[in-house]
Design brief:
Chains A, B, C, D: GO terms for molecular function: flavin adenine dinucleotide binding; glycine oxidase activity. The structure is a homotetramer of 375-residue chains. Chain A has 375 residues and is α/β, with parallel strands linked by helices. Chain A has 11 helices and 19 strands.
């Protein structure tokens, strides 16, 4: 098989699907080449917190990217629902970042101060106020930051809605498609050779998560690696929590539709397996019950793991390949892939199609820093 | 355990969940007693067609019930989404009832005429017009009735949304709760004895589908029985059909969100098993491909069966028990349980709470006809 | 449908399947009537320990029953493999009953003494000897009883092998068959009315676990009830334990084929749900890791619950119904259903077919004690 | 991570597991490096027919390999059961290769003649004799070859038993381990770089099925490719067939333990997806019912697909890499991977460890023919 496209997107996770959606919506003929199934890796394993403020405490390009991306979701979700009938279950009831010790409370109060500079809705809640905000939270906290704008959604549904949104705009989806290598014409990338045949295009984006480095030699193998996160879900027919509960260390309890809560996540660097260890489950349940005691009686539903792609400096690689003109990269979003997917897809699509960059801060994420060792 | 409620609903299918939702929304304290899991029987196995006109061709109480019920869904779906975050994927793109022979075309044209008397949007489509309305339909039809108002949704999600909507209004849900028998106080039913203890209430509704007769002696065992329906689903990453395809014999292809189609259903009376036979799958696939040839390449997803409760005259039993003042029945909806759930829940809740009946046609569904043998 | 059989077995758990197997092997025409699927309740949820000595410490009829039953398994397993090709994975590598405190060690040493009277292979192991016997056991024990004859097997496979063994001998299996009530002819039970029609036979056995009382009025509802047990399984590609690890409180870790271990079980009386609670999983994992530390890294596989039928005095009901000549009961085996299935099936079949009772101790299990309140 | 082994086996399918088992049994320290899970590709998707004679009609090296391999199974299965407790459900009740037209009958009678030269147990059965041999076979055949020695087993269980047999002999198993490339020391392969770190060894075998060519440049990409096979399974509680039913075109119905039958397989070359198409299921069911009419009522269980690695001349590549001294290949077994696994593992292990080749015919399978284009 041979086929020509305006753009190829390698990797059908949320980043690839978002970019393909934007490209096809702009009228370009796009193919998504996915080695397994759409959304089968980190994108489908995430908890879906749109934690722009929960996850990022420092002002700078990453926070700007995150806050802009978060703001895109209400409209994006509505247009995907319209086009694909898929509802991604966006819930905007806010997040509590809880202090479990006095020391943590001091740290979090400082963070709350900082956040209030750019978002006056952020508030520090006393232990009593935290209990009032979320009655099922243990009364034994040391207070919490209330971040009302950090919503959440169902990541696997978002990924499928983006891919089917691309389909709606005439994109093609190839699953179980193994990309072997680039096809060059006189040092210029003109396509890819795959298990499903050759695909030709002048624009190729690689958004293959932790596997991106297998295709892109410019990334040092040690500079992009998975951090495995293990999660579980519980269900209940009792009243459940309404707000996302979040700890600074990266632990969270996320209330989904229909009485489900998602609890995560461990962090195991360089582990490519999807096993969920016995001790991980014990840790997640024990921590969840200490924060929301009524979860002790909730029903166990399932356990899973995702391999979140991390870079050496913690920032994603976004933008044009430093040496190959027609190759673009978008990978390394670590825990923020879902949150950042909305803006990443939009900016990448614009860049690939030669639109003048509107977002100067975006250059901070270029792969050049990898080449130059400037982090 | 002993507990007192304003009303008990026995059976957590779509009818029970809908009634419990309406009762709890009216402010009553309700418990749903479900022998297995919410929505685990016919409600979760349905295809979810809101086929008021596709399923019913005769004017009369059943058609009136169906058309009124269909009209309630847009608002109901929106309020459930608001309260539970569950989207039931209501799709309102219409239905084509297709003629596959000239004889069928004659019959369907007559039916189209009749429907047009009360719905001027119904139209008869020539074979070419049918192909234009749904390009993936085989061109080899003998025409089709276009019924634009018959929508569809995800039945399991509707059932869960109704049950969680009841939960939102402080109802209690007891799963794996076996109801052994009524508790009488001086010939008056005052509660039920169950595997989870005794529940007391002056109002008891039984909406246990084909199992209702095990509890309600007034129903002759042969007058309420399951008609097993076997279904399959396929998925595709190719463009898929947009409209529900329906044959007069009760065969259908229903396009769901995300490239899924549901294909059903066989009819096996008196079969309580949930097995899906090899020949049923062969029949469903072969028929589906003959109508929509591109489905040949769609991916098989799964097969399942539901036991749809049928009555001897084909109409549901709705209303007060003829001999037990405090006992109400709502069962026997056969293929129309999802469609009729919206209005059934509303009217049953009103009746149970003594509201003056607004819908005189509703008396046609009383169990008295069973007692009197007047059908 | 109407059908005549030599014997009807109501309940397709391990007890019913074993009796049906023995009856059909003796040449009788048997039908198994099962409300859901063969082995879908407690029989399929058990861990499969043949713990004649691990579970029972007192001499008497129950121990005699258990030891005789355990001795039947090697031949039974071989003949089922021959007839059905199903291997039930019988493993006879013994069991360690571990002391985790000094007080427990004292109790267990006494028990070891007692057991040695009738089984000289039983030995008390010092902490060092226990570690040597099972190197993956934590060295921090207070010793253990070694019971080399208590083997284990896969309970769901045993149940299916027995049912298919009955099939091999021309028995009939009806799944999803709801038995409504007995059919009497002049006060004599002559059959049962079911959702699949009427079945006639002069011999009816009820082996429906915790649901037996729904059919047999002679059993007081409070005298036969489920004790829910929650279990999990882990898998590993590392070397695993070889011996079953058992605590006197009823906790166990059972090594299965292919690197799987089954860990159980909680005890929740009167709970008919199959939910597995978050706290149960935390408890099971935490206890398992404290005994076998290397399990911390094993992969979580799944969680499940079974409703084990318990009687008020802890002994099963076995034998003829005290008032209905043709009705037999075999239920209430609690945690010992798998272990006792071999002998129960054999003796029940003999009794039903009028063979002279060979086992006088068997009368201890008659339902009369229920009627007479003599426990 | 860095580790040294006596031998590395890349690919944890049945061929890799068998070789690792034999190597570790010989006392060598072995690691299996598997990109997903043990047995997750073609090995786990096969039907498990040991069809030495059913599949191969020409005398020559392939038939010799197949017949020798088939003869190894009874002992292999017994030793794996002993070491791992895994029973692979070897059934040796023979196979009927059925003629469905007169023309086929003529072809098959010739084949039967040929087979009888080296196996006098092979017989040609008239239609009546075929019906007698397998009473559930349709009487409307044109006769059948009876091949009593072609048995069958459960392929996923065999693969796991081999891997756990290797574990028993101290081998290590790495799942989710992506092998990136060989590590060379002065043109000699000394190990592999993987996602789980570097592994060093002087002996490396690649048995990665259709993916082998991604690692071994000497194989032309077009000379090793998948032929997707789609299968389904049915179950029944009725008496089922005893013998494997086989058609010359490669269609089969295989009776497994416990009333299960496996039906396969389609053939789709160059298709890397695991989708099972609607038309494939229709084809398999319709063909199966035409041969064994009672299967019409059997219950559908599941559908799956496997990617069987095929070579350009239809023979596997077995032996040393023509240019890299320390690299061995075993791949391309197409439909015969399970059958050939026993002998392949044995001979490959012997070759890798420098044992003098005992089987001169084995040289026919060398990769040299690929290099030299001598097929």
């Amino acid at each position: 098989m041979e086929a020509h496209y305006d753009a190829l997107v390698i990797g059908g996770g949320v980043i690839g699907a978002s970019t393909a959606y934007q490209l096809s919506k702009m009228g370009y003929k796009v193919a998504i080449l996915e080695k397994n199934q759409i959304g089968c890796e980190a994108s489908g394993a995430a908890a879906g917190i749109l934690g722009a403020q929960a996850e990022i405490d420092e002002e700078g390009p990453l926070l700007e990217l995150a806050i802009r991306s978060r703001a895109l979701f209400p409209n994006l979700v509505a247009e995907l629902k319209e086009k694909t009938n898929i509802d991604v279950e966006l819930i905007q009831k806010g997040l509590l970042k809880v202090a479990t010790t006095e020391a943590e409370a001091n740290v979090l109060q400082d963070k709350a101060e900082r956040h209030r500079r750019w978002d006056s809705d952020v508030r520090w809640l006393s232990p009593d106020a935290a209990s009032e905000a979320e009655p099922l939270l243990t009364p034994d906290t040391y207070g919490a930051i209330s971040i009302p704008k950090d919503g959440q959604l169902m990541p696997a549904k978002l990924t499928h809605a983006l891919a089917h949104g691309a389909l709606y705009h005439q994109a093609a989806i190839y699953e179980n498609c193994h990309v072997h290598h680039f096809i060059y014409d006189n040092k210029k990338v003109v396509g890819v050779r795959t298990s499903a045949g050759n695909f030709y295009s002048d624009q190729v984006m690689v958004s293959a998560g932790a596997w991106t480095k297998e295709l892109v030699a410019a990334i040092h193998p040690k500079h992009l690696f998975p951090i495995k996160g293990e999660c579980i879900s519980l269900t209940t027919n009792q009243p459940s929590i309404q707000k996302t509960i979040f700890l600074d260390e990266g632990f969270y309890i996320v209330p989904k539709a229909g009485g489900r809560v998602v609890i995560g996540a461990t962090k195991r660097a360089h582990d490519y397996t999807k096993h969920v260890s016995a001790e991980a489950i014990e840790f997640l349940i024990s921590k969840a019950i200490s924060l929301v005691p009524s979860l002790a009686n909730a029903s166990f539903e399932k356990a899973w793991a995702g391999l979140r792609p991390q870079t050496v400096d913690g920032w994603p690689y976004l933008g044009q390949h430093p040496e190959l003109d027609n190759v673009y990269l978008a990978c390394g979003h670590y825990r923020n892939g879902i949150l950042l997917s909305a803006i990443t897809g939009k900016i990448m699509a614009e860049q690939m199609m030669g639109e003048h960059p509107k977002h100067s801060f975006f250059t901070a994420f270029r792969l050049q820093r990898e080449m130059e060792g400037t982090y």
